[in-house]
């Protein structure tokens, strides 16, 4: 778990951080697969919050389907540009339509949030890949709606929107679908969590 380190000092800090993280959450992750454990460790490291070891949930097929999609160079779709910018070392296409003029027009026309409109726009542009949502519950609701209706080809979803309005509910709804998922239960989540999960998946493949 290099956690983005690229220098000797960076690797030393990353290794020390890894040991601290493991000491804090080892008992909580002992039943996870090595890949799942790596993802949770990176989330805890990125947030400095061991509680994520308690609230992070993955479907049994999440890692398998996500790694398959990423290994095939499938697209990654994010809800906001901060998540997009944070995902690195991926050779495939990373998309975010939140600032597109078409998104703004669609949001006004349908009277929905720009985050939801951005997902709808991606679906109309034949998106096929992994979705990473760290901020907008309305984006996650839209992904669920379009995927369930067969209008969006979603391989897996990192669904970790943060907040007190709709975040917990949208994540619970995702868990009730057949879509491979990673969620953080309750209101916690955010850009660092979405980025950490996505980068961890990419790094697992790079190590392999």
Task: Walk me through what this model shows.
The structure is a single chain. By secondary structure, this protein is α/β, with parallel strands linked by helices. It is built from 10 helices and 6 strands. The protein has a 6-stranded mixed sheet with strand order 1-6-5-4-2-3, sandwiched between helices. Helix 9 (167-175) links the parallel strand 5 (153-159) and strand 6. Helix 7 (114-124) runs parallel beside helix 8 and helix 8 packs parallel to helix 9 (167-175). The longest helix has 22 residues, at 8-29. The mean pLDDT is 94.
What labels describe this entry?
6-stranded mixed beta sheet; single chain; 208 residues; globular
How would you briefly describe this protein structure?
By secondary structure, the chain is α/β, with parallel strands linked by helices. It has helices at 8-29, 34-47, 52-55, 62-71, 81-86, 101-110, 114-124, 137-148, 167-175, 191-207; strands spanning 56-58, 75-78, 94-95, 128-133, 153-159, 181-184. The protein has a six-stranded mixed β-sheet, sandwiched between helices.
């Amino acid at each position: 778990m290099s956690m983005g380190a690229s220098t000797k000092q960076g690797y030393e800090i990353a290794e020390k951080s890894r040991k601290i993280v493991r000491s804090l959450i080892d008992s909580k992750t002992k039943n996870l697969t090595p890949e799942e454990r790596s993802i949770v460790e990176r989330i805890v490291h990125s947030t400095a919050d061991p509680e994520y070891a308690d609230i992070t949930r993955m479907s049994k097929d999440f890692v398998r389907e996500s790694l398959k999609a990423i290994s095939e160079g499938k697209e990654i779709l994010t809800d906001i540009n901060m998540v997009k910018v944070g995902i690195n070392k991926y050779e495939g296409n990373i998309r975010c339509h939140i600032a597109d003029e078409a998104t703004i027009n669609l949001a006004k026309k349908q009277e929905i949030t720009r985050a939801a409109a951005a997902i709808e726009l991606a679906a109309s542009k034949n998106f096929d890949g992994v979705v990473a949502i760290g901020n907008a519950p309305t984006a996650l609701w839209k992904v669920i709606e379009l995927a369930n209706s067969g209008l969006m080809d979603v391989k897996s979803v990192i669904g970790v929107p943060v907040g007190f309005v709709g975040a917990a509910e949208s994540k619970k709804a995702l868990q009730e679908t057949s879509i491979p998922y990673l969620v953080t239960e309750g209101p916690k989540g955010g850009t660092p969590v979405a980025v950490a999960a996505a980068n961890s998946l990419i790094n697992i493949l790079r190590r392999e």
